[in-house]
Amino acid sequence: MPKIDLDSIEPTNRTGYPPPYDRDVAGRWYRRLGPPSGLTDMGVSHVTLEPGAWSSQRHWHDGIDEFVVMLDGEAVLVEESGETVLRPGDCAAFPKDVPNGHHLINRSDAPCRFLALDVQKGEGDCHYPDADLHYAVQGERYTRKDGTPY
Amino acid sequence: MPKIDLDSIEPTNRTGYPPPYDRDVAGRWYRRLGPPSGLTDMGVSHVTLEPGAWSSQRHWHDGIDEFVVMLDGEAVLVEESGETVLRPGDCAAFPKDVPNGHHLINRSDAPCRFLALDVQKGEGDCHYPDADLHYAVQGERYTRKDGTPY
Fold it and tell me: Chain A residue closest to B69 (CA)?
């Protein structure tokens, strides 16, 4: 059945971020839609941000195109050129290899929901302009920017 | 600017389908969001279906994961296992190489809008269970099922 039964997928707020970077995403609840629906080349996360929650640390990817579309509520997109409110139906794209760190913050007093999609082929490292974090695809782990482990 | 200015992108109802298969999609208006926003590995179409319009002929792809999310209004998803109404926030996934021909039909009396996303890597042929159509990635063209040109 191609239609996805969202209620059948347990949301999680799991994160691989080391402290203190995990706190900002504690109110980020997501369902990964790709694996239960058989997608292997496309990643799809159905995300709810509680008030105050961040979608991630501000970041950009080598090798991964990303796309978001707001479904309900509103969030603030923060990136190098400033801040933009995203409302239902609004879309934003983050081409691979473009060093424009981005994330969404829910500054409203109600939950918001969005979809985040990416291409699961050709993943490279992930870069975090505001946090002492680096994600190395080789080794699949987070380190400090100087490469030392947490 | 990562947020996409939808109004700046001219919608088109262009199709490569030969007659008579072009008629069903005459009321399908779409904006391709990938190229103007710099995405190269992910395809994103922002689609409006007028009442009666089809999203495509019923089809499935070799090599291409596809995903749709309804934004406004409603459409009927038609595929091998039957028909399912999709409403705002509903999602459906079509993994590559799975021979489940699918399309959306707007049987309501108002326009509906949805996003259709795919991965622009590894494209293979496209198969049409209901129409005498075949899309060959080699040659980038539509033929009859027996390979003869229109």
Answer: A115
